Amino acid sequence: METENVLPDIRQTQVFKAPIQKVWAAIATSEGLSSWFMPNDFEPIVGHSFKIDAGAFGMQPCVVKEIEAPTRIAFQWGKEWTITIELEDQGDNQTACTLIHSGWRVDGMTEFNMPHSMVRDTMSKGWVGLVAKLGSFVEA
């Protein structure tokens, strides 16, 4: 892929007052993901195809690409996007969480004929709220 055709990844980082295993359970299980992200039939198995319920956008196809317990998970969302969540144990029951949404192209179009450039801005704002929701969930 040509770098001049690529939009920057969306990156959201937050430190949670929660042990890494608790955060891992919230990102690497169907129940955990449902609590802060979207309903799904996720299984933490590389190659597993699953769907997330994106509400008005319907059931979205995903595939697990990486599992490195308890520090990294990645899945493909739709045809072009990849969601990667990286965890780092900060000690003292604190965990740094970085969510990366990649696969944005300057000329990209979603399956709903919306340009990536427009959707990326909306999704970037959405991830701010979702990462905060993850934090509230694991800190409860």
From TrEMBL:
Pfam families for this protein: AHSA1
InterPro entries for the chain: ASHA1/2-like_C, START-like_dom_sf
Domain Activator of Hsp90 ATPase homologue 1/2-like C-terminal: 17-136
Homology family: Belongs to the AHA1 family.
Protein name: SRPBCC domain-containing protein
Organism whose genome encodes this protein: Paenibacillus lycopersici
